[in-house]
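call fold(seq) -> tokens
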Amino acid sequence: MILAQAGYELRTMLRNGEQLLLTMIIPVVLLALFGGTSLLDLGPGPRVDFLAPGILALAVMSTAFTGQAIGTGFERRYGVLKRLGATPLPRSGLIAAKTLTVLAVEALQAALICAVALAMGWGPHGDPVSAAALILLGTAAFSGFGLLMAGTLRAEATLAAANLVYVLLLAVGGVVFPLERFPSAVRAALELLPISALADGLRQVLQHGAAFPAGPLLVLAVWAVAGLALAARFFRWE
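ret:
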């Protein structure tokens, strides 16, 4: 039942033009735009080496947070969640199916982004297990807060808030703009954001070859625990 529901969720997401724009097209366009031009000063070394980890982090956020919050919010508004709750599929199974869907989409995103980055001359190195751990913790953190938003706000409010958060974190989360450009006091606060921790951790691993980026992993773990705990406490199915 979980696999069947996950397959349905995945097909629905991939047929949705807005979801494809958010999860697949925008990250690739940003990678190609800023990686192929000199619009931004990204420091020494190939531009794609800085951009690719940040774009991977953005892809995780777009799927686990923005896309999931909006999709789940409208499912809740139209009574889809209530109807699913009356089927043999338990609510825990629905959450598991949504989790599998998010991970499947992230795998597709990663394959596409990595293919484009490699074609642009990206040379990643480092421990893939650490990179996977960062992505899983980032997924848990963003999913928790996405579900919290979808389960507490009206669908229209979720749509507006999720897109606003997406744009703000894209601008100040170290995805395409280096955090070193911000004042030190502001940078210290921005480094505690989940998108900043994920982007920085992936850069430490994939760009600099770090084996275990403890700081970013800790930040993401705290966000993951907090988000999932709040979602479990306050999420409303109707």
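The chain has a mean pLDDT of 88.
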